[in-house]
Amino acid sequence: MNKPLSPSLISTVTPAANSAQLRRSVRGFASQPVADALLHDCLQEARRAPSGANLQPGYFWQVCGARREQLSTQLQHAYEAGEQEAEDYGYFPSPLPMSMRKRQVAAAQALYGALGVERGDAAGRGAQFGRNFRFFDAPVALIITIDSGFGPGGYMDLGMAIYGLMLAAQSRGLATCAIGAMASYPGLIRDVLALPSTQTVVCGMALGYEDVGAPVNQALTARAELDAYFKRLD
Ligand SMILES: Cc1cc2nc3c(=O)[nH]c(=O)nc-3n(C[C@H](O)[C@H](O)[C@H](O)COP(=O)(O)O)c2cc1C
């Protein structure tokens, strides 16, 4: 059992606000490996996330070596062949409201703009999208799953742990990118990782040290103004 943090330890942890301000998705990584102990530290901190009834839903599977190569090769083949699977869970509302569509387009422009990929360059965009399936060549590749019986509340809990992992990594000089693209091929991922059919594939995550010279890491996203999502009701 991972014991509660003691008050003296709490005061030595980097303030979360700093990590939250500095964190951004990183899609280009240095080859420097991440020590197992450091990764385990990050995961244990992430799992301090709150959850309903402290159920702590979800699993993080680190995919390494030949298994990782096999997974990425098969995912890339499936993607390049235009194969489609039924996804385990829905993500985007359909239709996407125009206000959200604008945010999506702005995020895509930030990414492809940093790479110098023009709007009409389908091959360039496809190549970058394909890199999702290689975990952006990060030293640590994670697949994140949840027991299929969980409803939206469980995803909410797991999302907090995922963000906790991002912040824990950030505060230790590491960088991350969540990879929702993995959820396009849940069956393939379960097969290669030999996961039971009761595991829903939520997303992947790339984790490692940032390649600070990689143009892709120049992509910066904005956020909606406070009044777009916060209202005080008297
Ligand atoms: C659950 C989740 C899934 C994501 N999936 C992908 C993905 O498949 N590929 C990708 O390049 N970025 C992915 N992202 C990164 C988002 O595009 C990014 O978080 C967003 O544009 C805001 O930018 P920032 O993280 O740099 O602040 C994902 C983020 C989240 C939280």
List the helices and strands and how they pair.
Blueprint: H1 7-10, H2 16-22, H3 36-46, E1 59-62, H4 65-80, H5 98-115, H6 122-131, E2 140-147, H7 152-170, E3 175-179, H8 186-193, E4 199-208
Antiparallel strand pairs: 1-2, 2-4, 3-4
The structure holds flavin mononucleotide.
Residues 24-25, 27, 107, 132, 177-181, 203, 221 line the site of flavin mononucleotide (FMN).
Total DSSP helices = 8
CATH topology descriptor of the domain at 23-87 and 132-214: NADH Oxidase
The pLDDT mean sits at 94
Q: Please state the overall shape, judged from the principal axes of the Cα atoms.
A: globular
How much β-strand is present in the residues? 5-15%
Q: Tell me how many strands there are.
A: 4
- From the N-terminal CA to the C-terminal CA, the straight-line distance is 45 Å
Tell me about the biggest sheet? Answer: 4 strands, antiparallel
Query: Could you state the CATH homologous superfamily of the domain at 23-87 and 132-214?
Result: NADH Oxidase
User: Roughly how many Å is the radius of gyration?
Assistant: 18 Å
Secondary-structure element string: HHHEHHHEHEHE
Helix fraction bin: 25-40%
Secondary-structure-based class equals alpha+beta
* CATH 2nd-level architecture of the domain at 23-87 and 132-214: 3-Layer(aba) Sandwich
Family: Belongs to the nitroreductase family.
InterPro entries: Nitroreductase, Nitroreductase-like
Pfam families: Nitroreductase (PF00881)
Organism: Comamonas piscis
